[in-house]
Amino acid sequence: MIKTRLGLAAIALMSLCAAGAAHAQMSPKALVQRLYGEPSLTMSGESERRYLADDLAQAMAADSHPGEVGAIDFDYRYGAQDVQIAGLNILEIIDNDDAQVVAVFKNFNRPHSVNWKLCRRPSGEWRIYDAWSNTGEEWDLRTMLRLPAQHGRC
């Protein structure tokens, strides 16, 4: 009986460790898909750090002031303030510790895309270090937040 309980406890512990390792190894595409699954972009600093490279998360937090409009006054996942999204498709290209993900969709029945650049941390976790769009109104997160084109700390 005791051996059975110890065995079950060991299996449960291994499952938790495996789940943590799987989370750390989430693909760039899966990370961006998870961001699109967030109900809103009103995230705490901890939530932002789950998705964004350190310098981008810090700049986003510094630009966010309750009751005020910052440099980014739209939902950068869709490149728009108002959204009616259909047909979201996400594609990825991985090149060692850098990746690019492209989200293609229709907003109010108009084709649109958002490009995402990601970097890999030494732990294996991916983080977004830039996003931009050149469909419709052109924008780039790093430029809007006055960050250098290349990421600082992933």
3D structure, described in words:
By secondary structure, the protein is an alpha+beta fold. Helices cover 35% and strands 27% of the residues. It contains five helices and five strands; from the N terminus they run H-H-H-H-E-E-E-E-E-H. A five-stranded antiparallel beta sheet has the order 1-2-3-4-5. Strand 4 and strand 5 form a beta hairpin. Helix 3 runs antiparallel to helix 4. It is globular and about 40 Å long. The termini are far apart.
Instruction: Provide the helix percentage.
Output: 25-40%
| Rg from alpha-carbon coordinates | 18 Å
Q: How far is it from the N-terminal to the C-terminal residue, by CA?
A: 48 Å
Low-confidence stretches: 3-24
- Average predicted confidence as pLDDT: 82
User: Strand percentage, roughly?
Assistant: 25-35%
Number of helices: 5
Helix/strand/pairing category: alpha+beta
Keywords, please?
single chain, 154 residues, alpha+beta, five-stranded antiparallel β-sheet, 5 helices, 5 strands, globular
Short description:
With 154 residues, the chain is α+β, with helices and mostly antiparallel strands. Helices cover 35% and strands 27% of the residues.
Q: Strands, helices and their partners?
A:
Elements: H1 2-24, H2 28-37, H3 45-51, H4 54-63, E1 85-95, E2 98-107, E3 110-120, E4 126-133, E5 139-140, H5 141-144
Antiparallel strand pairs: 1-2, 2-3, 3-4, 4-5
